[in-house]
Amino acid sequence: MEPLNSSSDLEKLRKKILDKKDSKGLAISVCVSTGCKALGVQKVLEAFNVEIKKQYLEGKVDIKETGCLGFCEKGPRIVIYPEEIYYFQVDAKDVPEIISKTLINNEIIERLLYTDSITGKKARYLSEVPFYKFQNRLLLESNSKIDPKKIENYLAIGGYAALAKALFQMTPEDVMKEVKESHLRGRGGGGFPTYIKWESTRKAPGEPKYVIVNCDEGDPGAFMNRALMEGNPHSILEGLIIGAYAIGSHEGFVYVRQEYPLAIENMEIALKQAEEMGLLGEDILGSGFDFRVKIHKGAGAFVSGESSALMTAIEGKVGEPRPKYVHTSEKGVWDKPSTLNNVETWANIPLIINNGAEWFASIGTAGSKGTKIFALAGKVNNTGLVEVPFGISLRDIIYKIGEGIPDGKKFKGVQTGGPSGGVIPEQHLDSPVDFDELTKLGSMMGSGGMIVMDEDTCMVELARYFVNFLCDESCGKCTPCREGLKQANIILNRIVSGKGTEDDIDKLGKIAEVTSVASLCALGRTSANPVLTTLRYFRDEYEAHINEKRCPALVCKGLISYYIDPEKCQACMICFRNCPANAIIGEKMKIHVIDQSKCTKCGTCYDMCPPKFRAVQKISGEKVPPPIPEEERLVKRLREKKRD
Amino acid sequence: MKMEGSEKEITLKIDGIEVNAKEGTSIFDVAKTVDIKIPTLCHNSALEPFGACRVCSVEITDKRGRKKIVTSCNYPVSEGLIVDTKSEKVFRTRQLLLELLLARCPKVKKIQDLAREYGIEKPSFWVGDPEEDCILCGLCARVCEEKVGVSAINFANRGVEREVTAPYHTISDDCVGCGACAIVCPTDSKKVRINTYPMLEEDIKEAEKQFLNGTRDELLGVHTEIFAAKSSIDGQDGGMATALLLSGFEKGLFDAAIVVKRTVGYKAEAIIAETADEILNARGTKYSRVKMMSKVGELVEKGKKKIAIVGTPCEVRTGRKIQQQLLSKYPNLEITIVGLFCFEAFDYDKLKEETKRLLGVDLDKAEKTQIQKGKFIVQIGGKEYSAKVKEFHNAIQGGCAYCNDFVARLSDVSVGSVGSNDGYSTVIVRSDRGKKLLENVDFVKGDVNKEDVIKLATFKKKRADKKFSPIIQGTQK
Hints:
The structure holds two protein chains of two kinds. The radius of gyration of chain A is 28 Å and the shape is globular. Helix content of chain A is about 40%, strand content about 15%. Chain A folds into five domains: about 5-135, Glutaredoxin (3-Layer(aba) Sandwich), CATH 3.40.30; about 160-360, Rossmann fold (3-Layer(aba) Sandwich); about 370-455, Ubiquitin-like (UB roll) (Roll), CATH 3.10.20.600; about 460-545, NADH-ubiquinone oxidoreductase 51kDa subunit, iron-sulphur binding domain (de novo design (two linked rop proteins)); about 560-644, Alpha-Beta Plaits. The longest helix of chain A is centred in the last third of the chain and has 19 residues, at about 530-545. Chain A is of the alpha/beta class. Chain B starts with 8 loop residues before the first strand and ends with a helix. In chain B, the strands form five sheets. An eight-stranded mixed sheet of chain B has the order 12-11-13-14-18-19-10-20, sandwiched between helices. A five-stranded mixed sheet of chain B has the order 2-1-5-3-4, sandwiched between helices. A three-stranded antiparallel sheet of chain B has the order 15-16-17, with no helix packed on it. Chain B has helices spanning about 25-35, 90-105, 110-115, 140-150, 180-185, 200-210, 240-250, 275-280, 295-300, 315-330, 350-360, 430-440, 450-475; strands spanning about 10-15, 15-20, 55-60, 65-70, 80-85, 155, 165, 215, 220-225, 225-230, 255-260, 270-275, 305-310, 335-340, 370, 375-380, 385-390, 415, 425-430, 445. Chain B is of the alpha+beta class. Chain B folds into two domains: about 1-130, Ubiquitin-like (UB roll); about 215-470. In chain B, strand 1 (about 10-15) and strand 2 form a beta hairpin. Chain B contains 13 helices and 20 strands. The interface of A and B includes residues 335, 477, 486, 489 and 518 of A.
């Protein structure tokens, strides 16, 4: 097609697209993002295509392949238009029924609707699903409405209108002013004011200036950036172009980790389409503004998400951080002024330009404006991506959106900010989600990882897990991070295996102090947070491990034993048969006993023992009672019978 | 990032002393001007600051009154900056860093001494390999990349697995044996001597003692004889290198030779010659460096125990080091080395580019190339094209400027063009093995001008010394 040459060209095209769209048209949107793909959505999609042919509906139904809606655990997810009915956990064999009943006859298939885990109520519309009801999805909402591979879809929901507005109705200074007044802060972790970063690059001497999208999402379990880039790449690109215009940059990079193939694919398509339409490249929309973007694929090192490391990687070198005493916004890629923002930050820009800074600043708290996407995971009933306005309490996220802790267990803590963040305990659950509040609690916003833990989580083990993760992911360049993490890992391993010594807590504290002040980059400086927060809020657990050789959560293998309660064992032989170490002594009618010398503490017996018996128990910090004498091992009910 | 001081003069305070300095200079450098010594393990003033060891940490107070620990080697000074190099926090930070490093390298004296200054005698942390002697400061890798320009050694792996090594943990084909890595190493680590071959003065003397005999000349090296010769082979100059190889081959001094042969166009590759024909086919000088040393390992692995190498001084030097290492494993290994005079070598791709630019011809079509009387001559279709060698400086291989050996002083016999008339080669005999090679070789002797050889050898050595001087000055040993 001919490139668009003006703002009115764009609007004409938009009108054409909208006119063509039949508002009453039948459509099915199917989430084809990574989460649903893993759950087999491809087969569902194929089934729809086959069935549509079979029922002679070709050309009458629009099958839209869309991005992620966040509730991945309930995928594959589909939406049926025009009624906007949401079905979850759809299987290929449900497809014929969906078409003949719901699509054609507006008949609801109850079993495919979302069932509220607490009330048991069926939810026909998304607004009735608790997981969605309390969200404010400014960014993620569009994911269900567009096919990310089709720029026309993005245009149909108003895409690139913000770009046209910026280019034709605003000067770069106007854009800067808008961003400043929006009080937008970086979504990558630190929450640095976006305006200040932009202004610094804008004013820094040196050409060319670069703008960069950071999609090197590395927090374990987090996928906010992936969902946005897979589901709505144009929104990120539009934000980037507007930013470039404001900053005075003509070259940009999108840094995506190689492990996100679909995000890369969709972004590549987006760039190509935008270029063909004249929304990217030379003389964008006839405005005279030139801007080009390259995709840089990262090899997936966690540390490459750190801005200076990422820029070093773009230069073609090993992605290792370098000192930032002079900010990368002034001397970044090839020592040129470079503004790097997270995917989510860029995606907010079109919203701010379209709706105005005032609107944006009206959402959130005094210090944190707008919404934030979190990857809610762990011991919580609903897991997935949640987009919430700043200021919402952690409790609301976990109990209203997440619908609480499974199996009636008690909440223990929530880890925010991934490996660089910390654990926040029960007493701070009513704290508002806000950059500064989370930092005050010893944790941080991070890029949006949120892991909920229940009473069965050992906080020492948790700290060990994160420290171990960072040992692998530290680049190893500077002494405190490399050697400090190594030693912290050794100490924590010692503690969880029951060999901790009295001065271990002090040593951990000493290491934490030096890593947090003397490390080269933020990875090192924040690496102690998991240790520091668990020490701050759960010091008693460390002490129990070290002094009493007891793991209060009954998790640490080195400190627990499995024991069969002779009063409860019914000699069902299940644990006996399943024990991989042949550590269980038992026979029919005879109470089973665990040979502690053979037991590997794998927990199979504990998991297999029928819930009605609950005979296998975990004990910690106390001696395992001696096995009952051979002659008394006849199971209780038989013993009693005998006595009678 | 480079630390560039601007022209702007500013005033700052270091440990209460008011100091004037150029804005943007590092705290470390400014402190030096007022005799405040800051310890460091990873800094060398000849190289860009790296900020890895963090031992040079100091405490600064910024304009807003906030205190912060920063590394002095790469923190740029600005107006009004207040620096404290001795605060309690600085002491504690350095103390723990040194304790961590001592736990890593418990036997390294440099670390022991520095740790003692901060009150640490023994680390309270876990000690892994007690023989570990590398603190991962990266000086070796950085000098090799930033200065020498060959990147023969670098970091591998990340996090706690990080180490310094040659690529793939195997014999480096790129190492020129210049020794820069060993010179800058603050702990004299063994790591720079595994698969890379720093040849310091003492290493060269040791190799001379082990492999050569004759009188020692500071510039020509150990030798018994130097003369000009012309063989019956139509090779480079007097064709002596090829003649010597053929002779050694016939006498059974070796059964395989690593020689350099043109493969596609002018591009040369090291090949293994196992017949007289293969040796003859490889005659003629190629003024570029090729990957050769890994072939030695390959041949020995294959069971060959009598090997010949023909190479430039860097290849001879690294070859000898490899020989020393292999001898401990294969005591009956015999290596004959024919060395070639070399002032500097070219990088093939760059030379091709420059030949096109300067002479307008395609290097790949050259029948012969020659450096003579300061000119690089390319012969194509019987016609000669030439320009001053100096003009080809862009095409010079990294590392050459750091090499101080013109005459391949560790070879058994060296051969070159400088010092003899057209059609003759200059020959320097350095060992019994070299003598044996010459026995029964059919050649005509000519006049040799020793001064010419010495002149270039001096020039090359001086150039290398000049290059090394700032690096040596910058070491914190």
